[in-house]
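In response to the reviewer comment on reproducibility (Comment 2.3), we provide here a single inverse folding case reported in full, input and output, so that an independent group could reproduce the run without further information from us. The structure tokens appear first.
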């Protein structure tokens, strides 16, 4: 009957509208996730760069012509900045693997601080060779490990975004397919 056809036509238009609303909402959701990962990525890269600066600053302790009085406070300040950055990254991380990597990075930064303290003690006692040995072996490796862990967290966040986006895209396809199938059935009827 004509009334049934109009009612089903109205239902199809409602389904199309609901699907369009769902698509717009999920696209905004994906855009928000991408923006969050973009910000996380930027801060992770900054932290990794600061870790390189930290390692180089510590190596300047024993470099000829460099002032220890300049580099020690700079390394301490950079270490504090990196610790805060890693904690901020951990708070903003959505993925459990990323948080785990950042916990390991925080532990490596604490270990770097311990290595730095030992190197400073050797420098103060005028044992530059021992300080250099600690700086170039333990200090460099600890800072590099922390940088690798920050990078692993960055990659884990990126992979979590990809998985979330794939799941949302699958929901979108299912919604479009269901709406299309329903509209086709109504037209055939």
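Designed residues, in position order:
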């Amino acid at each position: 009957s004509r009334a049934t056809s109009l009612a089903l036509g109205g239902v199809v238009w409602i389904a199309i509208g609901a699907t369009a609303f769902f698509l717009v909402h999920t696209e905004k959701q994906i855009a928000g996730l991408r923006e969050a990962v973009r910000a996380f990525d930027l801060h992770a890269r900054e932290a990794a760069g600061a870790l390189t600066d930290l390692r180089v600053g510590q190596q300047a302790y024993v470099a000829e012509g460099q002032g220890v009085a300049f580099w020690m406070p700079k390394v301490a300040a950079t270490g504090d900045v990196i610790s805060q950055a890693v904690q901020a990254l951990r708070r903003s991380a959505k993925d459990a693997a990323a948080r785990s990597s950042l916990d390991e990075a925080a532990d490596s930064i604490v270990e770097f601080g311990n290595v730095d303290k030992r190197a400073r003690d050797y420098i103060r006692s005028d044992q530059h060779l021992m300080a250099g040995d600690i700086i170039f072996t333990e200090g460099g490796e600890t800072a590099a490990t922390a940088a690798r862990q920050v990078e692993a967290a960055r990659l884990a966040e990126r992979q979590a975004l990809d998985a979330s986006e794939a799941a949302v895209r699958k929901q979108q396809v299912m919604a479009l397919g269901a709406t299309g199938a329903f509209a086709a059935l109504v037209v055939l009827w």
